[in-house]
Amino acid sequence: MKPVKVGICGLGTVGGGTFNVLQRNAVEIARRAGRDIEVAQIAARHLNPACSLGATPVTDDVFEVVNNPEIDIVIELIGGYGVAREVVLQAIANGKHVVTANKALIAVHGNEIFAAASEKGVMVAFEASVAGGIPIIKAVREGLAANQIDWVAGIINGTGNFILTEMRDKGRTFDDVLAEAQALGYAEADPTFDVEGIDAAHKLTILASIAFGIPLQFDKAYTEGISKLTTADVRYAEAFGYRIKHLGIARRTSDGVELRVHPTLIPADRLIANVNGVMNAVMVNGDAVGSTLYYGAGAGAEATASSIVADIIDVVRTLTTDPNNRVPHLAFQAHSLSDLPVLPMGEVETAYYLRIQAKDRPGVLAKVASILSERGINIESILQKEAEEQDGLVPIIIMTHRVLEQKMNDAIDALEALDDIAGPLMRIRVEQLN
Predict the structure, then answer these.
(1) Measured between alpha carbons, how far is 38 from 257 in angstroms, rounded to an integer?
(2) Is 12 annotated as a binding-site member?
(3) 256 is in an annotated binding site
(4) Which PROSITE patterns does the protein's record reference (predicted)?
(5) What is the pLDDT of residues 68-98, one digit of tens each?
(6) Is 10 annotated as a binding residue?
């Protein structure tokens, strides 16, 4: 049987890792796929010194690969929304299968891409778009197919997790650790996507669609970053028995789907609370299986290549199957996707950690408690510290029971309007992940 020919578009860190894994493990891969897999052409602006390309043809024109009639599978590793979208749609129009690691492309344009692929009877595989080397998409889409998925919660950005780990373990400031993360190559020169939750929201959008059978709706995801967190918040969380993680959370409710990324306090004894450094982890709760945890490298050349090559093998295995009987892109048959809405953040219910900087005057705590009580917000525990020497302000830390976000927003507005309260409050949501 003749080899399946693939074209790699992009030879950066992940593209180079993919080429090397395909070459190094060629025999093992062929045994699994049932056919040899050959890299027929590469499109790259710059060669990767980590790759020994030999006689593999290289071009700087990505569409030369896309339009090459010999290529069966196009591997898109360019990134971004623009050229990558054109590459994928043109490959599909040419009747080629596509493998991509591009979470932004899938989260924003996936509905359009999957519709085009279904029309042409080709596959678009995207395991590497979420959590790098962790096969979380296959686990949710196939391994947990018998379950009604109730919720998904994940540490799905290694940069943010590295920063929070260093802040907790070494008492360092956010800015200090971010600078190191950039020096180590964990964070980009512009770290906005990582530290403000946009990267995680791309990934969470994909997971939620697969878990709940809803269209991709990145524009409805709530995002909140970690740049305002302080080492004091990390210490106070520990005092209450919690750790702060930058979580992506998707939960099915009777009213709709919660889709949110934000700093979250979780009990310190949860396994996911002990995922440190640049590692990723995803918890999935199904009605039959209960809670399951998937842990591993969320990025890196060969960790991500592991998922990309697994997708290539899956595509090769199904080249001769009836397109109507393949695993659906978003786990559910396209005509069976649900119209369950994504809830606005104000309608989400969760518990809260509040850090309030109050002036050292009698009766302040009573005013705070009164404002919370008037809005039906019950206090679970409270911690009042000594006045801080530099500004004379008293930190008050409050843990609340679960309440609608809108009620908490109203309470925070009222608290910040008090003369006795200095500056904005710190609000962090709390999840038990039972």
Answers:
(1) 42
(2) yes
(3) no
(4) ACT (PS51671), HOMOSER_DHGENASE (PS01042)
(5) 999 999 999 999 999 999 999 999 999 999 9
(6) yes
